[in-house]
TrEMBL record:
<feature type="binding site">
    <location>
        <position position="34"/>
    </location>
    <ligand>
        <name>NAD(+)</name>
    </ligand>
</feature>
<feature type="binding site">
    <location>
        <begin position="119"/>
        <end position="122"/>
    </location>
    <ligand>
        <name>substrate</name>
    </ligand>
</feature>
<dbReference type="InterPro" id="IPR036291">
    <property type="entry name" value="NAD(P)-bd_dom_sf"/>
</dbReference>
<feature type="binding site">
    <location>
        <position position="81"/>
    </location>
    <ligand>
        <name>substrate</name>
    </ligand>
</feature>
<dbReference type="InterPro" id="IPR001236">
    <property type="entry name" value="Lactate/malate_DH_N"/>
</dbReference>
<feature type="binding site">
    <location>
        <position position="142"/>
    </location>
    <ligand>
        <name>NAD(+)</name>
    </ligand>
</feature>
<dbReference type="GO" id="GO:0006096">
    <property type="term" value="P:glycolytic process"/>
</dbReference>
<comment type="pathway">
    <text>Fermentation; pyruvate fermentation to lactate; (S)-lactate from pyruvate: step 1/1.</text>
</comment>
<dbReference type="GO" id="GO:0006089">
    <property type="term" value="P:lactate metabolic process"/>
</dbReference>
<dbReference type="GO" id="GO:0004459">
    <property type="term" value="F:L-lactate dehydrogenase (NAD+) activity"/>
</dbReference>
<feature type="binding site">
    <location>
        <position position="13"/>
    </location>
    <ligand>
        <name>NAD(+)</name>
    </ligand>
</feature>
<dbReference type="InterPro" id="IPR001557">
    <property type="entry name" value="L-lactate/malate_DH"/>
</dbReference>
<feature type="active site" description="Proton acceptor">
    <location>
        <position position="174"/>
    </location>
</feature>
<keyword id="KW-0963">Cytoplasm</keyword>
<feature type="binding site">
    <location>
        <position position="150"/>
    </location>
    <ligand>
        <name>substrate</name>
    </ligand>
</feature>
<dbReference type="Pfam" id="PF02866">
    <property type="entry name" value="Ldh_1_C"/>
</dbReference>
<dbReference type="InterPro" id="IPR022383">
    <property type="entry name" value="Lactate/malate_DH_C"/>
</dbReference>
Amino acid sequence: MSSKITIIGAGSVGSTIAYTLSGEDIASEIVMIDINKEKVEGEVMDIEQGTCFRDPVSIVAGEYEDAKDSDIVIITSGIARKPGQTRIELTQTNVNILKQITPEIVKAAPKALYIIVSNPVDIMTYVFTKISGLPENQIIGSGTILDSARLRCGLSEHFKVAQRNIHAYVFGEHGDTSFIPWSAARIAGVNVDDYYEMMPGFEKLDKEAMLTYVQKSGGKIIANKGATFYAVTRGVCKLCSILMAASESVSTVSSMMHGEYGIEDVCLSTLALVGPKGIHSKIPMTLTDEEVEKLKISAEALKAVIAQIEL
């Protein structure tokens, strides 16, 4: 597979994405861009020196103009939350960074597919959609890809079954108002609740505890090791492979809502068909009334943040 991928931001997430891509066959050319020139040059040198073990790949520390003809641009720029800093303060800071980046990168790579990873990802996806001037199908927020992966990991451990046999998703915000539509959670095609009857002997699943596990995993990892970057990197690299594939795949990505489930003018995650042209369409998965209400609560929480930031 021959493709050019540009990564903006050489922090833990951006650098780990570049490193992971360098060992896979998704990209033949990788460009890393960061305001800290020495940092990005060091990351590129370190990654590049390990590429003799794979087919040739170009990895460069570049400027915005070097993103020309990129197939995919991944935006990871932003700062982590500091002690005493409110969520709104963090959001405004990262929005301001995105506002500086957007015109530069869009000018260089107007036809690229954009993956927004910077947090808070749903707000950042919304802002990028509003200010970039790009068609919405080209803009994909990483959304609850990571949350859904955490859910499948938790369910796999509980039911002792391979994660690839589990189809369960996290909807809404990548954050505290996310929720699990259990009505659609399946193990090898069987609803999670019915699985107990077919396979007796398992302890009953505590759904609230599973949601807590999904929502609090990031905080626990940060408390233990300072940052999270491995699992999100795997999710983003998988998304890159989907975008470069021959056909669409189903994924929980964040994108602009236009009346789906009665929600408009906010970005959050539901099921979408994603492929070589970006977001093809949303999949109108049937939700219960309670699940639709939870999705609306998540949307309103995001809109409350958007109302307080300066676009």
